[in-house]
Amino acid sequence: AEVLIKKEGVYCIAEINASLPKQELHATAKHENMYQAIDGATKKISSQLRKFKTKRMQKHKGVSIGQVLE
User: Fold this and answer.
1) Closest by alpha carbon to 3, among 33, 45, 31?
2) Position 65 confidence tier, pLDDT thresholds 50, 70, 90
3) Cα Rg of the chain (Å, integer)
4) pLDDT mean across residues, the chain
5) N or C: which end of the chain has fewer CB within 10 A?
6) Cα 41–chain centre separation
7) In three state form, how does the secondary structure of the chain look?
8) Which carries the bigger pLDDT value, residue 60 or residue 66?
9) What pLDDT does residue 21 have?
10) Starting at the edge strand that comes first in sequence, how are the strands of the sheet with 2-8 ordered?
11) Residue 9 region, left (φ>0) first, then alpha (ψ -120 to 50), else beta?
């Protein structure tokens, strides 16, 4: 993951870019307080990661080991 924190005027901007197999996730948050901007971006990227993981688990849920070996 790559985390960028920059300041534009009064606002702090936190950007998180995460590389996953076959997908890139991006989250950005803007706030006057740097820590709140980081928290906002972290919550967004966590939500995206949870959604990505859930989709992958549902995709492979019905497959048993016997089916994989055949």
Assistant:
1) 45
2) low
3) 17
4) 88
5) C
6) 9
7) CEEEEEEECCEEEEEEEEEECCEEEEEEEEECCHHHHHHHHHHHHHHHHHHHHHHHHHHCCCCCHHHHHC
8) 60
9) 85
10) 2-8, 11-20, 23-31
11) left
